Amino acid sequence: ANLWRGLIREYADRLDVSDATPVITLGEGGTPLIPAPALSARTGANVFVKYEGMNPTGSFKDRGMTMAISKAVEHGAKAVICASTGNTSASAAAYATHAGITAAVLVPEGKIAMGKLSQAIAHNATLLQVQGNFDDCLDIARELSANYPVHLVNSVNPDRIEGQKTGAFEIVEQLGKAPDFHFIPVGNAGNYTAYHRGYREYADAGISNQVPRMFGFQAEGSAPIVLGHPVKNPETIASAIRIGNPASWELALSARDDSNGYFGAISDAKILEAHRILSAEVGVFVEPASAIGVAGLLERSAAGEIPAGSTVTITVTGHGLKDPQWALRGTDGVDVQPTVVPVDVTEVASVLGLAKGDA
Ligand code: F0G
Predict the structure, then answer these.
(1) Is ipTM strictly over 0.95?
(2) Domains plus CATH for the chain?
(3) CA of 229 to the centre of ligand 1 (A)
(4) For the segment 104-117, what is each residue's pLDDT rounded down to a tens digit?
(5) Where does the record place the modification N6-(pyridoxal phosphate)lysine (predicted)?
(6) DSSP category for residue 319
(7) Are 181 and 308 in contact (CB under 8 A)?
(8) What pTM was estimated for this model as a whole?
(9) Which residues does ligand 1 sit against, CB inside 6 Å?
């Protein structure tokens, strides 16, 4: 078997690294591209999901963080800082501690999922809950990094986008070609920008046939790019993308224009519906924000915008175990209560609706 060595070693020729770069890796990248027959049947397209929850800290952020922390250490940084809705902080904390440097993370008070909070604390980051939203946290992190000896590892750091573009490289290699459409969640629009860059690079190098149309989705209550102006008090149950003023806004608009792409907004109800389809029909467990690309595909397909037979890939960005409470919520809004049974085979069989017979 060809064992995966982490994305910096696998893609060294396409990243800004040299022999002088210490490779800080937890084995990120190399995630599965999973066929999704349930989504293909609903849309008439040939649909695949790129399961980024399989990264070491459970989200796509690890692709950017292996680069950002390696480059920070190369430049002598002893401390990094980030603002986060949770996943970036989990990833920064893990990679920094692995590198033997410190991480400080700023998160919006009470607005990040428990799994992510636990990760940052477990990995020894200094975690501060800011009495504001993500955009306020990013403003503070930027100002601190400009005036204090601390290195910023948000996606405004160009090393992050560079690492994240490898998701597109892998898809081209897994499919043997570029897809026709790529669907992806949008918060700061860093990952949208990164996938476009990866696809563009492979097309220009003649490794792939085309740049897919890049379709990005924001939650309806947090949709600045769709609205065309910042949103002061962004709201959505998809806490990972509760962002009102995306850092990579301009880059993302260029990527949209280059790819004949699209930005759309999706309601929280449709996000949860897509979350359920992914869990219950595809077998892929994600956090709510990660389901928005699937919701976007279903919406665009219903609008007649996805020709039958198109090859469609969707990045599902973070693992379901990060924020598992949503799985327990029934379609009626009431939490599911698993049935309790006694220690009795006959009773259990009867509750399961099993009749005695051949095994
Ligand atoms: N999906 C998940 C699970 C995320 O955590 C994020 C961003 C996105 C999608 C959007 O990616 O910002 O590049 O457009 N999370 C950041 C964080 C903001 O702090 O973890 P983007």
Answers:
(1) yes
(2) 7-58+161-328 (3.40.50.1100), 61-159 (3.40.50.1100)
(3) 19
(4) 999 999 999 999 99
(5) 61
(6) B
(7) no
(8) 0.97
(9) 59, 61, 84-88, 155, 185-192, 240-241, 287, 289-290, 317-318
